[in-house]
Amino acid sequence: xxxxxxxxxxxxxxxxxxxxxxxxxxxxxxxxxxxxxxxxxxxxxxxxxxxxxxxxxxxxxxxxxxxxxxxxxxxxxxxxxxxxxxxxxxxxxxxxxxxxxxxxxxxxxxxxxxxxxxxxxxxxxxxxxxxxxxxxxxxxxxxxxxxxxxxxxxxxxxxxxxxxxxxxxxxxxxxxxxxxxxxxxxxxxxxxxxxxxxxxxxxxxxxxxxxxxxxxxxxxxxxxxxxxxxxxxxxxxxxxxxxxxxxxxxxxxxxxxxxxxxxxxxxxxxxxxxxxxxxxxxxxxxxxxxxxxxxxxxxxxxxxxxxxxxxxxxx
Length: 315
What we know:
Elements: H1 2-29, H2 34-39, H3 45-54, H4 61-73, E1 79-80, E2 85-86, H5 87-122, H6 127-141, H7 144-158, H8 174-177, H9 182-208, H10 211-218, H11 223-235, H12 237-252, H13 255-260, H14 266-275, H15 279-307, H16 309-312
Antiparallel strand pairs: 1-2
């Protein structure tokens, strides 16, 4: 068991290292460089040479990568030459805002999806199951921006229940953010619930037909106890990784949603960095998102190990 845990941690670290190389090379492969972006139309051969020396762009690629990656290990993402500000300072509040948005959607969506998945499994092929299955399939096929546009039109424009866009400052307190995230949270929750519901339903149906569940029912164990203490824990095993991937998507895949609702998070910031050719900022954000994604996958793998009865017996 310990070897398996160490192996997964080792793979996560190795994956993060490989991803950092890919991110660095991908940014370097983009046309132009930081000196070109910094000078813009005022660029001359002399000024380009000066700022490439100033930004240390003339050094070999491996040397620049290892300097950047060693800073990442220390928690230092460098400084944005276009903003003259440390990248960690730029992304600090944006990361918090994305975290608030993602966790709010997860806290609402994950329990709801699990409940509906179990409910539809227990009502298999009945009207509730058919209705919720049809709704989930529709939500899975619709892009996020379509759902978001629909919500803005009806809930913000037609009935004026919620604000259509976020109108608070990046560094605003969380209590000021919360009233502005209702529509983004509903949009993310709709997409998230659809995927987790389908997987939970399928897994729950398989578990409910297994021998040990049938045996428990034959012994007269109450149905609610069979569902909660026998079927649900085992049905959740294949769902854990999907939940972790969903939370990682909420943290890093909200670019469209944050742009649509003018939300001051990492997703919108990375678009600003790309359009402004702030390569150091884009590298830093991409590395933060990759770390979150890999970390959540590692947590899901470790949790699956502890919850798996076959592996627990090897402790």
